[in-house]
Hints:
The structure is a single chain. This protein has about 70 residues and is mainly beta. The chain has one domain. It is built from one helix and five strands; from the N terminus they run ββαβββ. The strands form two sheets. Strands 3-4-5 form a three-stranded antiparallel sheet. The protein has a two-stranded antiparallel ribbon with strand order 1-2. Strand 4 and strand 5 form a beta hairpin. It is globular. It starts with a strand and ends with a strand.
Amino acid sequence: MPKAVEGSVIAEDSTSREVKIDIVISPLADEPLISDMLTGAFEIAIEDAGKGLWRFRWEPKEKVRETVKP
């Protein structure tokens, strides 16, 4: 569903800009999956994908966040 919703990333002390999001529903996925394009639109910098560590690009490199379970 192209441009089906608008969304943003909400962290405890900061929020990304709101962007229009394409939705694809997969019966195989048991967690949210986002593309590299959406990651870029949300201005997310992935610090360690395996450990779920990230930050917003505008934040200092020392400000590392942990992924929160949905």
